[in-house]
Fold this sequence. Notes:
The protein has helices at residues 37-44, 50-53; strands spanning 2-6, 19-24, 29-30, 60-61, 64-71, 77-79, 85-95, 106-117, 120-126, 131-136, 139-148, 159-169, 185-199, 201-208, 217-228, 233-236, 242-249, 256-262, 268-274, 279-285, 294-295, 299-301. It is mainly β. The strands form five sheets. Strands 4, 6, 8, 9, 12 and 13 form a six-stranded mixed sheet that branches. The protein starts with a strand and ends with a strand.
Amino acid sequence: MRIRATVAAVSGALALSAAVAPLAQADDSRQPVQRSAASEAAHAATGKSVYAAAAEGEPYLLNATFSNVKVNNGSDIKVGTTNVVKVPVSFTLTHGAEVDIHADDFFAGVELYRGTSFDDVIWWFDSNDATCTDTSATAASCKATVEIDPFFLLNEDAGSWKAAAFAVAFNGEDPEDPQNLDNIGVAVKDKTNSFKLQRYSKLTVNASPEPVKKGKTITVTGKLTRASWNDGKYVGIPSGQKVELQFRKKSSSSYSTIKTIKTTSGGALKTTVTASQDGYFRYVYRGITSTAKAVATGDFVDVK
C-alpha cells in the first residue's frame, strides 16, 4: 500500500492539521481519514464525515450565501510532476447581521473536488481560510488559495472537477473536538464551478537538415509527453493523439497549420515537408480533458 496525503488545512489562529488519506493500490480506492476541522464541520452538515459521529447534534444552517465564485481566474488547472500549483479562488460572501465573519473561529473557503457532489467526493483539495474584506455590513469580498501538490494525485484524478464554497461558524465550540454540533453553523454552496484538472504536457520539435536546399525534403520530428502523477515522471502520450505541424515565415509573426499528424509509440512525432523558404516549424497539441495543451518552441530552418 502506498500512503499519500492531501493538504486540507484551514489557516488562522487555530493551527488546524493537514488531512491524510491512505491509498489502496489493489482496489484503486482512497478513503480520507481526516480533514481540516472546518472542512469536517462542513461535511458533517451532510452526514458525510467521521466528524459528525464524534459529537452530538447536527450543525444548523448558517445565514450565509456565496456568489461570484471564481477558480483559477476561470482557467483549467495544469499540474506537472514536482511544482505545487497555487490556485487562486475568490467569492462574495453575503451574511446575516448576526454572523461575525471576523471571529477567530469563523472559517470560509472553497473545496475543489472530483466526484458527484460535495456530499460524495472521491478526492479533494481545500483552500486555506479565506481573507474577507467587508464591502458592506452584510457582505464581504473573500480570497483564498488552494495548493495542489502532484505528490497527492494519481493519473486517474485528471479530468473533470467541481468546486464548492463553504463557511463554518464554530461559535465557541472547539473546532478539533466539538461537543455539540448544534452550536455550529454551516453554509455550503455546491456546485459553484466546473473545470478540468489536467496533466501538464510538453512538446518538442526538430526540423532537419539545417540548412537545406530549396525543394529538398525537411524531416520534422518531435515528442509529446505528459506528467505521470503515479510515479512523478513525464511519459510519452499514447499513440493516436492529433498534433498540428505549423510554419511561420521568417518575415512573419504568425504561424499557420500545414498538416495534422498523430503520435506514434511513446508520443513520437515524425513527418516531412518540402523546403520552400526560411522559417520556423513547431508542433501544437490542443489537449484533451485529462491532458493540457502544449506548444513547442519553433525550430528555425535556413533554406538556401
